[in-house]
Amino acid sequence: MSFQVKIPQNTTLSIKTDLAGKIVSVNEDLLRFSEFELNELLGQSFQKIQHPETPESIYINIQKTLKSNEPWNGFLKNQTKSGNYFWANTTITPYYDTEGNTLGYMYVIRSASERQITEGERFYLNPETIEAGFSLNPQKILYKFKIKTKLLFVFGLMAILMLVLGINLILIKNQEYEGAFNRLKGAEYNLSLAKLMRLTAKHRGFMARVLSGDLTAKEGAVAIEKELEVAFKVFLDLNETEGNRFQVYELSIEIFKNWNHLRDINANLTTKESYKEHVSLIKKMLNVNNEVGESSGLFLDPDKDTYFMIDVSLTKLPYLAEKLGQLRGTGLAYLVKGVNADPSEKNLIQEIMGSVLGHFESIAVSMSSITKFNPDSKTIVDAYKHAEGDFPSLRELIQSRIIKEKIPTVKPLEYYNATTNLVDQIFNVNELISKQLSEKFTERANLAKNSARAILVLTSVTLVLLVILQYLIIQSIMSVIRNSTNIISQIVRGSGELKENLDYGINDEIGGLLKWMGVFILNITEIVFVLRQVSGELSDKSKGAASLVRNYSVTTQDQAASTEETSAATEELAASVENVFVSISAQADHLKEIEKVTLDFKMAMSEVPNAMMAMTNLTEEFYKKANDGMLTTKDTADSIYVVNKKAELIDEVVIIINEISERTNLLALNASIEAARAGELGRGFAVVAQEIGKLAEQTALNTRNIQSLTTDTKDAIKTSVGLMKNTEESFLDLLNNISKIQETAKLVRIAQDKQTSDTNRIVESVHRINENSLQILSAASQERIAVEEISKSIETIATGTQVIADNSLVLLETAKDIEVTGEHLQTVVETYKY
């Protein structure tokens, strides 16, 4: 059964792989935490420590990200050798050689938070659903897209809104154009109807005279019929194009048929019958007039300059003209009858007079509105006032010479001319109004059409400008981001220099970020400069120490070989005591060589403490410089912390300024109120109060800008503190490694001291052997005892030599480690150029 274990806080596990994903190195923390041996991981895939439940989609995502030469960051479930598992916040980044070529990938593993562990477990249980799931969180949705895509979306949305607005305005103007065009055609249609009604009314009057026995009117009736024929032709042509639009096509055709029928039978009708037929025809024309007014939208026209004209033209003047026509026909019939006329007909005439008077009064009110909203309506108003001025004369004529007289004294022709003149004036006014309406609707339609065209052009130009602006803004933002990213990536790869400038002279948020990144790079430059000096010295010294230890190791190996030869010689000496005198001379020479070798070895050993002392001084110097670098980093972090505190003080000052601004604004408002109460005397004070209020508003606006900039500054400071902590951790690791080197140097020093002691013993032993050889020459009887002593000494020499050889190998491995560490540090530092 597996259990979850957690990576200790402030612990970083690291793995390096080649481009194929094979592990090439790991740090001690990972070996200790994962329980694997180094040889169990080297050459293996990184997936060896991955948990079997890791979804394939994660590996695909990692490969896709790394192939694009971008760092990958996420949460991975790993396993230890014993089968336990642990969640890790993992960052995978490429690492490069000095030429900027990718050598492999660095896996940096840190502990994960509880929230990250919960999200990771949920994802591992159902990766497909979560990967394909839709999130309603706007931030998560926006984080999926690049900045360019977001900007394109915003500008595209603005363009669509602008296009929709333009199309909507064009449609509105098109509706206005269609409405004005319909009203224009309706006004033209009603103008044609007005002419027909005027001519029909005149024809009614002439036929009333003709049928009453006035043959002089026949010529006029024929002339009117010809005018009617021409007017009907125009009317029918207009009906063919616009009749169906206004749903009066059939009614208009019926009017024309009724007129033809009336013209054919008119001569055979009585005066009254002719009068009724004409009235019926004019009523149908009025009905068509109303239908056209409704279907063309004339009655719904909202503009005041045309509303009252339409009302007068469609609903008042035609009915007034018709009433005057009825007055003319009724009066003529009464006058023609003479003494045979029925007195009750006077009442009908008076009734029609009253209706005409009511129409004049109603139209007078509308004419005042027309005058108010139409400064160019003088011709219409003057024509109507002229007709209105002639009506009292006609009324006086009717009252004094028809109503009050038992036998009317007015002649039919005089009466006809008076009434006809008034009818013609009313129809003339109606035609003038219809013409002006046509002109207004024509102007309105043209204005709507031109406005639609202008809106189309303006929308097109705005869209083009918006596209250009979008391109320029996106290019300005993306060029800065791309250049900055390229510079930083080149610095990381080693192909760029730390002295690259990230200040592009821009004053927006990106410019502020780049300025602080430039400051950070300057700080890193200083650290890299110090590390380069230290690493160079360490590398050179470590190489010298490695060479010295390598020579020392060779010497000890030679000494061991010599000791073995000496041991063999002593065995031969012990085996052949009888031949001691024969070989004593050769033995003496051999002992001299041994003494010389031991002296050389002693001299070599005397150089070792100096080398070790130089290496110790070097490591202490390096330790001091690394410690100074760490202290510098801490001082920098402390400075940033002080800056953060001062930024918080700025927030407090901003709050105080906001309070002062609000109080100033309230004071300005109270001053404005008091100035208003003071009336004329407070006008100057009111101006001052208004300026104070504006100053307070501007102060509040600037304060909010300062607060926003302070917030951005604190966020940047937090990021800098995190980076400085990472640098401090790196220095701590470096100090730990230097401490290990110092401990190894101590072990080497102890071994060297022991070796020196053994060497002294060897020299002393060789010296004793030499003395013994002299004693052998003088005292052969003690040869057996000397041989035994020599054998014991040789054993001691062999043991000491073997210890020295073993210690030299340890010292050689330590020197190699120091050399590798120095070279690695030198490689890392040389990645950054300045």
TrEMBL record:
InterPro entries: MCP_chemotaxis, MCPsignal_dom, PAS, PAS-like_dom_sf, PAS_fold_3. One of its GO terms (molecular function) is transmembrane signaling receptor activity. Keywords: Chemotaxis, Membrane, Transducer, Transmembrane, Transmembrane helix. Pfam families: MCPsignal, PAS_3. The chain crosses the membrane at residues 151-172, 454-474. One of its GO terms (cellular component) is plasma membrane. Residues 18-69 form the PAS domain. Residues 534-798 form the Methyl-accepting transducer domain. One of its GO terms (biological process) is signal transduction. PANTHER family: METHYL-ACCEPTING CHEMOTAXIS PROTEIN 3, PROTEIN ICFG. Belongs to the methyl-accepting chemotaxis (MCP) protein family. This is Methyl-accepting chemotaxis protein.
